[in-house]
Amino acid sequence: MALTNHLRTVRGYGSAAGTGALAAILLVVVCGSPMYVGWVQRHTDPAGAGGWLLRLLAWPAWRLHSDDPSQSVLAADLRALLLVILAVALLYVLPAAQVARVRNPTSQFLSGWAAYALAGGFTALLAALFGPDGSLLAAFQATSTGVTYGFFAGWIIGLASLGGRA
């Protein structure tokens, strides 16, 4: 009986995590695409707040091929792939426990936002550690960029989490 109640609780909140996961996938696919990355580098000013934010959204950049023979396509795309996997996992793990206790939109929004900020930080840490130049100092420095990305892009995921059932 307890297992049935637990499954019903998780299933009832799955769509809020599902809409957040879909938004995370779309954000990485669109803003990490080579077309967006090229556009943002050519048409934005990194010294302005808007240009800085648009460039930050391109952080999980992915490529279909690598021009640099020392880097494989997998190494270049590791960050984008890890971000999607960790974001989806955290979106399903965090909101189920949080939203089950407090049923309001603020909890859904903050859980989605926090899940994406954590996913950004962990992604940067793991990608830097297992990437081509895997030093601990580089991993710590990259983590700050990942958390910054997750913080500033996470509100989009938080808003998308509001689209699911409460």
Automatic annotation (TrEMBL):
The chain crosses the membrane at residues 12-37, 78-97, 109-130, 136-162. Keywords: Membrane, Transmembrane, Transmembrane helix. The keyword Membrane applies. It comes from the Bacteria. The keyword Membrane applies. This is Uncharacterized protein. It comes from Micromonospora eburnea.
